[in-house]
Write a structure and sequence with these properties.
It contains 13 helices and 11 strands. By secondary structure, the chain is an alpha/beta fold. The protein folds into 2 domains: about 180 residues, Rossmann fold (3-Layer(aba) Sandwich), CATH 3.40.50.1970; about 110 residues, Dehydroquinate synthase-like, alpha domain (Up-down Bundle). It has a 7-stranded mixed beta sheet, sandwiched between helices. Strands 7-8 form a two-stranded antiparallel ribbon. The chain starts with a strand and ends with a helix. The chain binds adenosine-5'-diphosphate and zinc ion. The site of adenosine-5'-diphosphate has 21 residues, from helix 2, helix 4, helix 5 and helix 6.
Length: about 375
């Protein structure tokens, strides 16, 4: 089991451990018992994950004498709303939860974001722990302490920064993950490799075939660990997304716009992959990135089965205006994370709109 210590705000009380391994349930339960963060725990999960793992996880906790019960909500992004948060909070209250209770998120990003959000506001804040079960949640949403729910007009519009007490990342959960969900996570891992760890890019290239062997979680331990280390390093330096953390948005400026313009019919990872293709093209067009580097990374994305073309039916103008409306933009300037070399990203707020248009059109062909 690997351990990564996340140090936030230089205050001991806000640091926590992230454990990564395969089949680590027993050890996780012992650590939770020892952590003594709450007198009683509520396992929050969605219907899919509950069917697959709910009773097993509950049994493990109970076999070690931990008082825990489960609250389930319907699987899917549609559940990530303030209404579900209210329903879960009412359920918690109905079952006698109080300020000495803690929450355990068992599931993907939706479960993690929602559980963290509820924990951050229930009775002005109670502790929470995470058991991320999707590749995406393991490498991305479980680090950084962003919690939140969607509004009908836009995703993640209501939220808080709230760090968990510990995260237990068990790649054993990946055995049952649908291929499309693997792709989602893989896109974020490739992003981390591109912006900060060219060595990881080499490793991914070597193991491309192995990684597609979906039923076998073993090869993911070192890869998930490295991706988490990259995200940890960046989030520690810039917890609240003022500067450096922006580089984690590599591929996301265009990716988010494509995702929204497609009415979320394109999964996040695929949209990010298209966004990365856009950022690579822009970097090359502006003379920052050597052609060979762009070709190499584009080649890997394709080999891994990640899309690098934007669907022809999507409106270019629609995508551009979505980028200008994105909540991270300042004034009317769209900030792109561009690349000089793998491992050398930088933020550019001055990409001409005409070049953005040309790049999107290029990706549609
Ligand atoms: P993310 O935002 O992390 O991609 P979601 O929370 O939206 O993930 O989960 C995506 C889907 O995968 C949901 O339907 C969820 O119930 C399901 N899911 C989560 N973890 C697993 C798993 N380990 N095996 C199978 N399905 C899973
Ligand atoms: Zn992302």
């Amino acid at each position: 089991m690997n351990r990564i210590k996340i140090n936030l705000d230089k205050k001991i009380s806000r640091s926590y451990d992230l454990y990564i391994g395969k089949d680590i349930q027993d050890r996780a339960t012992l650590l939770i018992a020892r952590g003594n963060w709450a007198k009683r725990y509520f396992l929050i999960t969605d219907t899919n994950v509950s069917d697959l793992y709910g009773s097993r996880v509950l049994d493990t906790f109970r076999s070690m004498g931990m008082p825990v019960e489960m609250i389930t909500f319907p699987a899917g992004e549609a559940s990530k709303t303030i209404h579900t948060a209210v329903a879960v909070a009412e359920e918690l209250l109905g079952r006698g939860a109080d300020r000495t209770s803690g929450l355990i998120a068992l599931g993907g990003g939706v479960v993690g974001d929602l559980t963290g959000f509820i924990a951050s506001i229930f009775m002005r804040g109670i502790p929470y722990l995470q058991f991320p079960t999707t590749l995406m949640a393991q490498v991305d949403s479980s680090i950084g302490g962003k919690t939140g729910v969607d509004l009908p007009m836009a995703k993640n519009m209501l939220g808080t920064f709230c760090q968990p007490k510990a995260v237990f990342t068990d790649v054993g959960f990946l055995k049952t993950l649908p291929v499309a969900e693997y792709m989602n996570g893989l896109a974020e891992i490739v992003k981390c490799a591109i912006i900060d760890d060219p060595g990881l890019l080499d490793l991914l290239e070597e193991q491309a075939v192995l990684l597609m062997n979906v039923g076998e979680p073993e090869p993911w331990v070192p890869i998930v660990t490295r991706a988490c280390e990259i995200k940890k390093k960046i989030v520690e330096i810039d917890e609240k997304e003022q500067g450096l953390r922006r580089i984690l948005n590599f591929g996301h400026t265009l990716g988010h716009a494509v995702e929204a313009e497609a009415d979320y019919a394109i999964p996040h990872g695929e949209a990010v992959s298209m966004g990365m293709a856009g950022a690579l093209n822009l970097s090359e067009k502006l003379g920052h990135l050597p052609v060979s580097d762009r070709e190499r990374i584009m080649g890997f994305l394709q080999k891994a089965g990640l899309p690098v073309r934007i669907p022809g039916g999507l409106s270019t103008e629609g995508v551009i205006s979505r980028m200008q409306r994105d909540k991270k933009k300042e004034g009317k300037v769209v900030h792109f994370v561009l690349l000089r070399r793998p491992g050398m990203p930088f933020v550019n707020g001055g990409v001409p709109e005409s070049l953005i248009r040309e790049t999107i059109e290029g990706l549609k062909r």
